[in-house]
Amino acid sequence: MRNLKIRSAVVRDTLLSSARYEVQQNEASSTSSLSPCEIEAVCVSAENRIFGATHEGVYELSSEALKLVKWTKQRNEAKIISFDHLSDEYFLCAVLSSGVVLHVDYENGTVEQHVVVPTEVCSAKWAPDFHVLLLASSEMLHFVTRQFDIFNEQPLNSSGSGREELMTVGWGSKETQFQGSAGRKNLNKDDDQPTAVTDYDQRRVLLAWNGDANYVAVSYIDNETSFRRSCIFDREGELISHLQPVSNVEETLAYRPTGNLIATSRCDSDKREIIFYERNGQRRSKFECGPHQGTKIDWLGWNIDGNILCVQYKNLEGTAQEVNFWCISNYDWMLKYRIVVNSGILLACWHESNPNQFYYITQSGRATFIDFDFVYNFCDDIVLSISGCDVRVTDLKTAPIPPPMCHYKLNFPNAVCEVVQYDGIAAFLLSDRSLHAYELRERKFEKYVVYNTTDLPQDCICYNLCLNKFNQLSAIVACSRYNLYSFSIKNMDCKESHCLYSVEKPFFWHSYINGGFVLQGIDGECFSIIEDKDKKYCLEKRKLYGTEQILRHCRYLPTKDSIFGISKTNDLVVNGRSILKYVGTYAVDHNYLLAVTLGSHSNSSRLEIAKLKDILTTDKEISCKISRAVERGAMLVGHESDGARVWLQMPRGNLETIYLKELLLSKLKELINNMRFKDAAIIMKKHRIDMNLFYDHNPEFFIKHIGQFVENIGSAELLNLFVASLNNDNVTTGIYSENYCSNSHANHNKAKVKSGESKVQSICTAIREYILNLDDTHITGLFTTVISTYLKEQPPQISKALSALREQSLKLPGGGKLEKKWINYVSLLAPNENLFNVALSTYDLNLALAVAENSQMVRFYGVLFISIK
């Protein structure tokens, strides 16, 4: 149910961009320039420094000045096969087609040459730990150490079986296994037979390492059959398995960093599929990723956490490219984000250490660094989950339906990238940068208005949508400058965007405040822009909260004038200070803060809750006294705004609903204060809350409104349950003391006990007197409550209860049946052997006979009663 949202986007113009080129030409006409067509390969360091390889040497494209480290002599006109930055020693490494490896120290301007293999190399890939370099020629694989020595060689097309390859003999084959009805339909479908490569296959050898560098996947072309095949090797060069062949396989390969999944793609009729394999070569699963006509996959890769699969497409003409980001939940693959680039892409890759950072460099020389976050779009108890061109709507108040199921879907013409909700309005940003607004009517979203955003800059990144109470929609637009745009929803005639604020220094988050916006800069400092008299925005002078790092999952509460966010070290930060550590997710409203935390030595997570007023009135870290254990890895979806339900999503994807005692008691306090006693009684019965809270919450208020209490509940069952639960203890100083830190009426109860006045006695008397003053019709329906009040007193007033029911039954027509019913009720609360003796003490023989009949003692006393009569 989580969506993939851009947390920050940094756009940098490199030395290849036209803007930088013009500046250089204006500053010094004699300065040498660099053209994009000269770049043969690009790589990015862990510090996001961009290096470009040309025929002459290496440039740092992200620097302000041109610096060339020449390698013309060492290169000897060979083609660059791979170009990488080795972050452990901060060197650049280029593998050439001649089998030569160039080791470049850019800072010192030196180049070392290592002749590794004498044959032509067509592919190369460093292991993630940079200890093993795998070189591929047309027929062989060469495993090379960090010192550029070959320690193993294997044939590329091996006919033998791998070490872990699944062997099936007879009954282990697919044909002998139970297939079911769906399998029988596909028996004639021949997908396991390999086919010749496609016309746009470049016949490259593809290499992909797993995250711990123990295994590598290889995809190659069998020259004899022109089939594309794949196999797995370990880091020592031993063959592990061959992947099962499929038809129409494409030139793609990716190894998931965590686990044992290998991904590739194939074209099936008019659709494209991503297929997953186990390490033993067996197919595991697949999913459709759209039509394949006119496009091809240029690159396939996972982030280092293995929870986002990136698929880079380009059309066969090479005029446009797009990057899709897929995530999985409950075995359902969903397209969560799409980036469309009108120009070609030189490099697209995940960051080697930051799992949520993705970057790409276009042929125009612009580099874009994007940090993603997983967020739940939760508002008004409704969750919106993106799945390509559909948005799944789940109303948790109606039913917590787990994904991929939902209550209904909203369909859009393009892939949805970002969603925002506020006060019954939802805005959707599509991959073509168009904006659609929907309005919530009777708990269902209906189309409201569509905005034309063609006036936005080309190839910009639009993110961080924000709605406010005035139906104003705003977003950050990052390009060569960082802009804050506004889109008016309220005025139907105005559908154009307006740039409110524009700077060169990046800012990553914004939210609406009174008369302006609050923004977070690249240094973590929060500042505000305020609208002046000319309807323009200017930087405000007053100091706002600042942190040393960028916060994620930011939230601004206008009523409290507070900013919440999670730091890089997973500290929950409020107004620039850390209040809680090890926070995974959190939710906040005007009264409470809920957070899921994970201790460093704990096998489970904890759901913690704290009052917002306690957080904002202290300068220290809070210690949540109220918490409960939840499954490790659980994520907080949200909590009910006017209730006590909290929704969590487990690591497997299923949803769980829990009721927090703190929220339950808060809701009960509100109901009692508003004299909605029946609603409170139903909640107490359902969740086993001690009903003494009715009185102990505010004794004077309860006694004063005892009549409204009886009439509002109006149910003998609930009233009897309340009377039965009465005791002289004060729950606000006992089991619920944490929720009543300042109990003003505790001394009041102690005074009553000292004076000999019992809490139970006073409540029973008040309820009984009120019921007996009603008309006979209402008394009849609530008379069991009168009986309960007699029997709850200490000692139990059984004789008074029997006399009262006898007297009441004589007043009513058909009182005999009521009398038996009420006597039976008394027998449930009082022992039978004592009940008959008490009945005799009333000197009412008819009552005693009725009690004897109810207690099945007629055979002992029946003859005696008849003779007396």
Automatic annotation (TrEMBL):
Location relative to the cell: Cytoplasm
Organism whose genome encodes this protein: Litomosoides sigmodontis (Filarial nematode worm)
GO molecular function: tRNA binding
Matching InterPro entries: A-sol_ELP1 (IPR056167), Beta-prop_ELP1_1st (IPR056164), Beta-prop_ELP1_2nd (IPR056165), Elp1 (IPR006849), WD40/YVTN_repeat-like_dom_sf (IPR015943), WD40_repeat_dom_sf (IPR036322)
Classification via Pfam families: A-sol_ELP1, Beta-prop_ELP1_1st, Beta-prop_ELP1_2nd
Domain ELP1 first N-terminal beta-propeller, residue spans: 1-344
Family: Belongs to the ELP1/IKA1 family.
Pathway: tRNA modification; 5-methoxycarbonylmethyl-2-thiouridine-tRNA biosynthesis
Keywords: Cytoplasm, tRNA processing
Domain ELP1 alpha-solenoid: 663-856
Name of the featured protein: Elongator complex protein 1
